Amino acid sequence: MIENLPPCPKCSCEYTYEMNALVVCPECGHEWVPAESGADAEAAGPAERVVKDAVGNVLRDGDSVVVVKALKVKGSPSGIKAGTKVRGIRLVDGVDGHDIDCKVDGFGAMQLKSSVVKKA
Q1: Bridge partner list, 99
Q2: Residue 74 belongs to what H/E stretch?
């Protein structure tokens, strides 16, 4: 058992408690492994996020991608067809795994999941 538990990295609550190998915040519900958020993680600096497409290629801002499967779009009768090319993507921390911000011709601005595209 850890003597001095670290405060929550999300909300800075000092009333954290230990549950098995995790440390839990009672206020916001955030759970983490204490070794990950300690001085080792701060000394290493911010980790660069790697986003990979459906076949394992690393994606970067400005890449062009091709949609690999048909996608339904809310409010559109046809959706996005497989094979649609999307240019100039931007990688973001999206909601629900949507990590690509882009403009699709005929649909406008939207977010896509990297698991449904491949690098062109």
Answers
A1: none
A2: none
